[in-house]
Specification:
eleven-stranded mixed beta sheet; about 475 residues; D-Maltodextrin-Binding Protein, domain 2; Dipeptide-binding Protein, domain 3; alpha+beta
Amino acid sequence: MIDSQFNHKTLDPQREFEDGGNMMDRAIYDTLLTFKGADASRPVPSLALSYTANADSTVYTFKLRKSARFSDGTKLTSADVVYSLDRLKNIQGNPSSLMDGLTATATDPYTVVITANQPDTAVPVKVAGPEFGVVNSKVVAAHGGYSLVGAATKDKAETFLNTTSAGSGPYMLSKFSLTTEVDLVANPKYWGPKPAYSKIVIRNVTQAVQALDVQKGVANIAIDLSPKQVDSLTGVNVTAGVSTTVWFLYSNANPTISAITSDPNFQNAVRYALDYKALTAFAGKGAIQAAGIIPSAFQGALKPADATKQNIALAKADLAKTAYKGEPIGLRYWGGGAWEGISFDDFATVISSQLAAVGINLKLEPTPVGDALTTYRNGTDTMGLWFWGPDWPDSSNYSQNFGPSEKVGLRAGWTTDAAVSKVINQVAIESNPAKRAALYRQFQLDLNQNSPFVPLIQSPSILVSTKSVIGIASNPIWKVNLTELK
């Protein structure tokens, strides 16, 4: 039994893009490569026994294992891999950007070639993500699946994949809900080592209930407890550290959404009004200030000395340059939600109090996660409080999402910044590690001064389990690898 606060919207692997969905789909769908334990820096074999790359990192060749089978017993071949990657690309959903510039082909039944239209050193870590989960192409196609151009409207397989999984992983989906419970059962035809548990139940419960459940042994794992809650527990195992999750605040830069929040002076007033030491203390033991949008463990991460510091006088001076007269400004977030022990409601309240000290009056807008994700992704929120866990563990994940006119940039209404775009274009084709790191540093320094984004903290990474659970480790992509539990 696992206690978690749900944030998934689907378990269709080519559509899901939330941390909770990652954890579940990791157990249901195999990928070409994967990660072991907490290490998300070095991909290891899964469906692909090996891979090679050409000199300029534009062509990757994957050799598939011939023993892999889907849960219905049929062989998994390169045709299924290509179908899945084409579907990921052409559905044009949230994770489709992972296939930007990439093309998958099959040269024989057990060889897959991924070609990039420009150097892309992140391909091996990208394909380890659950969004690259390989589906049974014939089964999915028979239930409305479509992988070619036009899949955005023609693919109708999501409902089927939210009721019956079509993967080759150690587990199969037996019960699905967005609000109550997801059940996984062992795949009797799994091609690899037999999973340790015949059934895993993942329940949607609050932090307070999680603490009670894991203390009493009702739940074996609690995912969302805070450091303060953990301090009061006894007789349990605690896996703790600093996560790669970066919490950030943004002010919408689109003037049609808000003439106030789109003013760079207002954005700077928010940036300098915040008490980052207090925010880090609020998050609890193990949290650190996010110096930039790229977490501390990744290439080109900023140093603590680079982090933005509170400057109340500067915040008030910047605010005075705007047309703002104290009217309420909406701050949207996941109401009732929590991640890595941090309550959105409580965090938003602390932020609101700090901004009020310089004259910024926030109207807190807690919203159910599904609706909150929709308005956030549509770019219609005036201000937003969110977190970002890496879609793939490489700094390119941030330059390809947080720049102007990139995915998260558009959510924040940020469309143009020639200097930042120039750095993003340079780092996209740079393969020298030292030069890449320098470019990523510049990218973040620019964001810290001239963007609508304000990096806040890196949250603690805390997993609590009963003494009976073995093999638990916190991974930045899927939090807990259910297939490794013993």
